[in-house]
Specification:
2 copies of one chain form a homodimer.
Chain A (H helix, E strand, L loop, with lengths): L4 E7 L8 E7 L7 E11 L1 H7 L16 E9 L11 E4 L5 H4 L5 E5 L3 E3 L6 H4 L3 H14 L7 E4 L5 H12 L3 E6 L5 H7 L3 E4 L5 H8 L5 E6 L5 H8 E9 L12 H7 L2 E4 L3 H4 L2 H16 L7 E6 L3 H9 L6 E5 L1
Parallel strand pairs in A: 8-9, 8-11, 9-10, 11-12, 12-13, 14-15
Antiparallel strand pairs in A: 1-2, 3-4, 3-6, 3-15, 4-5, 5-7
Chain lengths: ~325, ~325
């Protein structure tokens, strides 16, 4: 049963969650190399909040779409699409510009390489919660960070969906995971997800705790979306030859380069977004296989925090901004 | 003919070049694993100036020795030394703490792994001018930077001995070399040494020039001892996926981490000193072979700027601080 019109979320100006407007737009047909999806669930990401606020890597073009993650059923395919067919149950991988292809809608169109089947043991709510988080974490820890068994891996802001995915992947690879969180309320949750150590940064000293945990050797691999002045501390707790991968800009203060720690310890500090993986056919194929198998084996398991109905999209954004969540925020249609 | 006393340079307080004192000390015997050298020439490095000023990676312990590079003849060996023998003509590789082993002296002792023969086509003045510069450049460009044929490589502060060594190594590896220098007076010299492009930063815009030279693709590999605010510009001119290797702290201002360029382009920014190579037996062996063969083939050729007699050690330091030099400053004994 095809719908002729699609409720779609767009915004016409930079601003807080209230700028999101639910609009009814005609459904269009996929062009060559594109796939149309009848959407069942949407994953909410920090990236969409940043786009809405004019703080993201790309700028909105008004009226701007938004959204990277949807799950649903393929209901039309463009010319030359061979990897999926009508009726396939799939979810989307962020290989595209969300200003152009944003998936906050009942019916959305994405490029063929953004569409992937997810394991049958997952619901559509779980299916929309996997690629962004797990490919981001896989690319950093495995592809770039070459994580090794028994490495000490430090995951900051670890209650986010990427943070949780990172804990699970690091554990699956045999590393010791140190997770940070601001308040004590999320500590037990992070231990339950698999962190070996949790540092509550509002009450504990990061540098002292990591020295104690690692017997002063420091963390081999650090995966951080915060940046700002914390980078100095991260460099201080990094091991000799350690790597710090920055993947966000949550802090509002400027980020100093920790020159003397970097020189003394030969540190690598790396900027990273998952597009480095999703824009490379070979790396993306490896990433998809890694994530798919991990999910099938249930070594990886998406943590769903809360589900909102589509009409409550503004509340879903506000909830993410409140930083209360432990895992993925999903919207169902 | 063995000398019984050794004129040795030490300093007893932090300060300008005048704190360097020429002292006559008794000659001691090498301990197990050590080698004694009758010195013929010394290479002067920025590191010694920084140590004297209390700005170096290690702190002086008074009275402090200094100096990393000497060439001369082995005149005594400690127990279990097997790789060199009395009478060998050698020069030193900085594998050691210069506070402990500093080589500014007529007779000096260093660990066995710091001693290497240099190619016979070099004089003792050239022989003392090779390991610090070429191993530093090799480690960054080849070992860490994985320099490729046709890469655009940007070398800043390129008139230093490490800068010149980097130009030669990058050319030998088939890269296009862009060298920067502050004033126009060193431009022709840098072209003669092998730079494909020279940017005179006092008069030319780094960002515009590199965009023009690389057809907007940016520099694949950047090797910089300056740091400070220039790091923002270096990130701006780096290519997608590019690497910036920082190996010094010549700038006096603080160094910002170029977060948005790093995220957008997936940049790697790396702290580095040659100790990363010299403290690793396997990497050091590869580095020595690379440098030795390059010198034999004359693809690598140390540029000697000026030679001072040992008594003029203070003037040699002052001359380095004047930043007039193009290549190595050497002191002969």
């Amino acid at each position: 049963m095809k719908i002729k019109k699609s409720k779609t979320v767009r915004f016409h100006e930079i601003g807080n969650a209230d700028v999101l407007k639910m609009e009814t737009l005609p459904i269009s047909n996929p062009k060559e190399g594109e796939v149309r999806i009848k959407v069942e669930a949407l994953g909410i990401n920090r990236a969409e909040i940043m786009l809405r606020e004019g703080q993201y890597l790309e700028d909105p073009v008004f009226p701007s779409r938004l959204g990277y993650e949807a799950s649903g059923v393929v209901d039309a395919v463009g010319l030359d699409v061979t990897s999926v067919k009508i009726g396939d149950i799939i979810s989307t991988i962020p290989t595209f510009s969300m200003v152009q292809y944003g998936v906050y809608g009942e019916s959305v169109i994405v490029p063929e390489n953004a569409v992937a089947k997810y394991p049958k043991n997952l619901s559509s709510i779980e299916g929309t919660s996997i690629w962004m988080a797990y490919i981001t974490a896989y690319g950093a820890l495995v592809e770039i960070g070459s994580i090794q068994k028994n490495d000490f891996v430090l995951i900051t802001a670890s209650s986010s969906s990427v943070g949780l995915a990172s804990i699970q992947i690091a554990k699956a690879e045999g590393a010791f995971v140190i997770a940070t969180t601001r308040g004590a309320d999320k500590k037990q949750f992070l231990l339950d997800v698999g962190a070996d150590f949790v540092i509550v940064t509002d009450h504990e000293d990061l540098v002292e705790k990591i020295a104690a945990i690692t017997n002063k050797k420091g963390a081999n691999l650090i995966f951080d979306p915060i940046a700002g002045s914390i980078l100095e501390s991260l460099a201080e707790v990094a091991s000799k030859g350690g790597m710090i991968i920055e993947y966000g800009a949550l802090a509002s203060d400027t980020t100093p380069f920790p020159l003397f720690s970097a020189l003394e310890k030969g540190l690598t500090i790396r900027g990273y977004t998952l597009f480095e993986i999703t824009s490379d056919t070979e790396k993306l194929a490896k990433a998809k296989e890694f994530v798919f198998k991990g999910l099938q084996r249930e070594e990886l398991k998406p943590e769903i925090d809360r589900v909102f109905p589509f009409e409550k999209i503004i509340e879903a954004h506000q909830y993410m901004e409140s930083n209360q969540q432990k895992g993925k925020i999903v919207v169902t249609i």
